[in-house]
Amino acid sequence: MDQQLLQVVIALACVASVLVLLLKWTRYQRAQKKILRARERRTASLEQAEQAVHEFKKANPGVDSTNIVSLPLAELTKRIRSGSLQPEAVLHAYIEKALEVNQKLNCGTDVLMESLKQLEDIESHRNGILYGVPVSLKENIGYKGYDSSCGVLCKLNEPALNDSVVVRVLKRQGAVPFIKTNIPQGLLNYECSNPIYGMTVNPHNLQKTCGGSSGGEGALIGGGGSILGLGTDIAGSIRIPASFCGICGFKPTFNRISLHGVNSCVKGIKSVPSSIGPMARDVESLALCMRALLSTDMFSLDPTIPPLPFNQQVYDSTEHLRIGYYDNDGYHQPSPSMSRALQETKKLLEQAGHTLVPFQPPRLFMAIHEYATKGILADGGTTLLQEGPIDPCLQPQAITYSIPRFVKKILSIFLRPIVSSLCTAMCFYSSVTDMWEQHKNIEDYISEVIAEWRRLEMDVLLCPVLGPAYNFYYSGMLTSSLSYTVMYNLLNFPAGVVPVTTVTADDEAQMNRYRGNFADIWDKLFLKAVQDSVGLPVAVQCVSLPWQDELCLRFMREVEKLSVRKKHTNTY
Predict the structure, then answer these.
(1) Average predicted confidence (pLDDT) for the chain
(2) 62 is in an annotated binding site
(3) Active site amino acids
């Protein structure tokens, strides 16, 4: 009898194992079918766009598309408004260029063919600030009839029922959204790859990442396939791709621009807010976009947005500034090119008559671990782990997040302090009271930083931004390198990046002496991540206090002007 029972148990165990395998196989097959359908839709939209461009060029052989896509935004808008360029010609020129760039970089997810229909009504928006300007959109920004998948399978086949508020405002201002761009899986990675659309690469070096999570935007604009785009930023997701791809990017104060209709895998994060902002080739284009968005259209469509129009007077100011600065936050040692970019920019600003004063963010380790990391990973990363098959770029993060809470607690006891506190931060909240306490601590910390800012009588802040662009598959292992960007999401300070130089052979040689602040495994990984970077762009970061977005942009414009002037002087 016992033998028969054992045989039954073994048989049932075998059946259960087979059923589990069948279930996994079925899920895998369903996932592959969803991915295939999404890729087929993308291929179809690319083919339709190619056909539209071919037909337009055949009907309009005299249009010089190359000249159109080389114009700065200010000049482009001037010519469109004067009638010397037609919106139809501009749109087709940028669709053609975007197709070319996408073939090389894999940066687009959908060409928005509705943009051609939008031209039929474009004259009714002739007074719009962005009349006739093609605009690219990060994939998670809602556009009616299209997915905002965030790079995860469970959000495929869920097309937006309406345009997001920001898209509606763009259209009312005469802009023409024409393409959606690629993102990393779940948006919480600063490489740009997902199981659906694959990996996007850097326009300056195909063996480097373009950054993330607004990586498709960075690559498309950096490659010349878009003149203006919108991204989102929760830990540097606009600023890092802008830095890696050699363009300008701006993260406004949270809730300055509406996020209504913008998708996310982890909604409801309050302690480290995400912002939506512009990306472009120059600072003036960022300001023009902000001017267009901060309109009565925005304030009426989303009453939760404070009705604060763009302050042109602050942006146009030429008064000398009192600028705080730091070149090493004590958490992540900058690469030699990051340090040189900061020091050269500091010197240029001083020569221009501005006052530079040293500044150091207080209690940075506490801010990064207990406030920023714990705020973003309040659930221990479990929500992100539920989003289907894991992309290789995300695997290191996924492995870390999947470690049981009690194991992380044990590791926090035995590992060195920096790793210990990071493990503790990823253990998620133990209670609602714990969460409320953290929110209060963050409020106190923001007040502490502002008090130090006021004590030094600073107008703005200059600091490094991560760079140069990484080799593939290092971002998921180097979340510790985000200290320069995530800090200003935590504080809710507007921040933007401006490219000021490129990596030199001397910068590369100095990497041989790079040890980092701790000479630990992460410092050694960073060294490998940025190897072979000669010629890649390097940027600096400009920061201001909350709701002083125009002052931040004004500071960015000053940095850009001085940097460009230096390049011209060196050229001649």
Answers:
(1) 92
(2) no
(3) 138, 213, 237
Name the residue with tokens 């740009």. Answer: 192
Amino acid at 148: S
Query: Does residue 486 contact residue 262 with C-beta atoms inside 8 Å?
Result: no
Q: Which helix (H) or strand (E) holds 463?
A: strand 460-464
249 forms bridges with which residues in the sheet?
279, 497
Annotated ligand binding at 237? The verdict is yes
Q: Is the pTM of this model over 0.85?
A: yes
Q: What is the pLDDT of residues 436-459, one digit of tens each?
A: 899 999 999 999 999 999 999 999
Q: Which residues of 296-334 are buried (b: 16+ CB within 10 A; e: fewer)?
A: ebbbebbeebeeeebbeeebeeeeebebbbbbbbebbbb
**What would the pLDDT profile of 319-356 be if each residue is shown by its tens digit?**
999 999 999 999 999 999 999 999 999 999 999 999 99
- Is 337 among the annotated ligand-binding positions? no
Report the alpha-carbon distance of residue 249 to residue 255 in Å, rounded: 17
The answer to whether 402 is a known ligand-binding residue is no
Q: Cβ(250)–Cβ(228) under 8 Å?
A: no
CB 141 within 8 A of CB 166: yes
Residues in a beta bridge with 228: 280
44 is in an annotated binding site: no
Q: Is the dihedral of CA 225, 230, 234, 235 positive or negative?
A: positive
Is residue 280 within 8 A of residue 77, CB to CB? The reply is: no
Amino acid code (one letter) for 271: S
> How many whole angstroms separate alpha carbon 427 and alpha carbon 408?
7
CA-based max dimension of the chain: 97
Per DSSP, what are the bridge partners of residue 316? Answer: none
Task: Please tell me what DSSP assigns to residue 191.
Answer: S
Segment 357-384, tens digit of pLDDT: 999 999 999 999 889 988 888 777 777 6
- Please identify which residue in the block is written with the tokens 């501009």: 90
Cα distance between the two ends of the chain: 97
Using CA atoms, how far apart are residues 545 and 493, in angstroms rounded to an integer? 5
* Token pair of 347 as six digits: 């010197």
Closest CA to 98 of 155, 202, 20, 178: 178
